[in-house]
Design brief:
It is a single chain. The chain is an alpha/beta fold and 220 residues long. The protein has one domain: Spore Coat Polysaccharide Biosynthesis Protein SpsA, Chain A (Alpha-Beta Complex). It has nine helices and ten strands. Strands 1, 4, 5, 6, 7, 8, 9 and 10 form an eight-stranded mixed beta sheet that branches. A two-stranded antiparallel sheet has the order 2-3. Helix 3 packs antiparallel against helix 5 and helix 5 packs across helix 6. The longest helix is centred in the middle third of the chain and has 14 residues. The protein is globular. The chain starts with a helix and ends with a helix.
Length: 220
C-alpha cells in the first residue's frame, strides 16, 4: 500500500519540556544526529508529508515544517491536537521525538493496519504498556482532544477513549494490538526485540543505552 492510498501524514511531537534530560531532547545528538532528525528520517521512507509539532527552538540542520501548539506545556496531548488540526489527511501517524529505536518497517505496517481496519485509533502495546506516542489516529478525534485540553485532562488515551464512549465517531473502534506477539509472527522485519524499539530516551542514561543499541545494530 503506497502513501497515496493510505492518505496519511506523519507528525513528530517535539514540544516537551525535557526536564529529565536537562536540555531540549529534540536537539540532543545520538550517534551523530539530533533526535528530531532521527525521527524525521524514520518517516521519510513512508513517502508522506511529515511535519513537527511544538518544537521549542530550531534544531540545526532540520528543515521540516514546524507548527506551534495551541496549548503549550500541556504534554503530548497538545502536540496531538496540533497534528489533528493541521493534517490534511484522515490518518495521522504520531511519534514522539524520543523514540530513536523504532523501525520504519513497523511504522509502515501499522499505517497499513490503520487504513485496513478503519479504527479511529491504532495503538500498539509493548512491554504490557500502551504506546500512544507511536500510534495512528484519525482527524475525527480532534474535538474530543481539544475538549480534554480545555478541561485540564492531558492524558492521551483518556481523551481518545472518552471520545469513543461519548459516541462521537462513526469510524470504528480503538484498535489496541500486541506488537510483541505480532512481531513474532513475522508481520514486519525487525532487527531487535520489540520492547527495545519502544524505549524512550528521557534521561542521559537512557540516551547512552540507546547509543549502545545503535552501535550493535546499524539502523535508521
Amino acid at each position: 500500500m503506497d502513501a497515496k492510498s493510505r492518505d496519511a501524514e506523519g507528525w513528530v511531537l517535539a514540544g516537551g519540556r525535557s526536564l529529565r534530560m536537562g536540555r531540549d531532547k529534540a536537539a540532543v545528538v545520538l550517534a551523530g544526529r539530533p533526535l528530531l532528525q532521527r525521527m524525521l528520517d524514520k518517516l521519510e521512507p513512508l513517502h508522506m508529508r511529515v511535519r513537527v509539532a511544538g518544537l521549542r527552538a530550531p534544531v540545526p540542520g532540520v528543515t521540516a515544517e514546524v507548527l506551534s501548539d495551541a496549548h503549550p506545556d500541556c504534554g503530548p496531548l497538545s502536540g496531538m491536537e496540533t497534528a489533528l488540526t493541521k493534517s490534511e489527511a484522515p490518518l495521522v501517524l504520531i511519534v514522539g521525538v524520543d523514540l530513536p529505536l523504532l523501525e520504519p518497517e513497523f511504522l509502515a505496517w501499522m499505517l497499513e493496519r490503520a487504513a485496513t481496519t478503519g479504527a479511529m485509533a491504532t495503538v500498539p502495546r509493548a512491554g504490557a504498556k500502551l504506546q500512544p506516542l507511536c500510534a495512528v489516529y484519525r482527524r475525527e478525534l480532534l474535538d474530543g482532544v481539544t475538549d480534554a485540553l480545555e478541561k485540564g485532562d492531558y492524558k492521551m488515551m483518556t481523551a481518545v477513549e472518552r471520545t469513543a464512549r461519548a459516541g462521537r465517531l462513526d469510524c470504528g473502534t480503538i484498535d489496541f494490538f500486541d506488537a510483541e506477539r505480532l512481531a513474532a509472527t513475522g508481520a514486519w522485519r525487525s532487527t531487535r526485540a520489540t520492547h527495545v524499539q519502544f524505549m524512550n530516551c528521557n534521561t542521559p542514561e537512557e540516551l547512552a543505552l540507546a547509543a549502545e543499541f545503535l552501535a550493535g545494530t546499524p539502523m535508521l
